[in-house]
Amino acid sequence: GSRSQINGAVQMCSRRTLKKAAEAIGSDFWILPSSIYELILVPVYSIEGDAQELAEIVRSVNDTQLRPYEILSYHVYWYSRDMGNLSVAA
User: Fold this and answer.
1) What are residue 42's DSSP bridge partners?
2) What is the model's pTM?
3) Could you give the CA distance from residue 90 to residue 56 in angstroms, rounded to a whole number?
């Protein structure tokens, strides 16, 4: 595969990428690290659950679907479009 597909979750560290994602989504969003290869961005308005419920989903996927070296994090993150910052939500 191409190098851009390896460890793609590093984009979570890119302010420019997160800002572009927020513009495309049109709102704040949750970030669920699905592996070291990818992130799942979830617009805040699209779910009724809270950060803790999302963290349980991340934990379940990490523990049942990934190899230990593929796990990026057990946390869920919040990106604030207005503030332009990323924080740990759960």
Assistant:
1) 30
2) 0.85
3) 9
Instruction: Report angle CA 46, 50, 52 to the nearest 5 degrees.
Output: 135
- Amino acid sitting at position 75: H
Other beta carbons within 10 Å of 34: 19
Q: Which two tokens stand for residue 44?
A: 């805040």
Residues in the chain: 90
**pLDDT, tens digit (0-9, with 9 covering 90-100), for 5-59:** 556 787 888 889 999 999 999 999 999 999 999 899 999 999 888 999 999 999 9
Helices (H), the chain: 15-25, 51-65
Asked if 39 contacts 18 with a C-beta cutoff of 8 angstroms, the reply is no
Q: What is the identity of the amino acid at 10?
A: V
With tokens 């924080």, the residue in question is 87
> What do you get for the CA distance between the two ends of the chain, in Å?
33
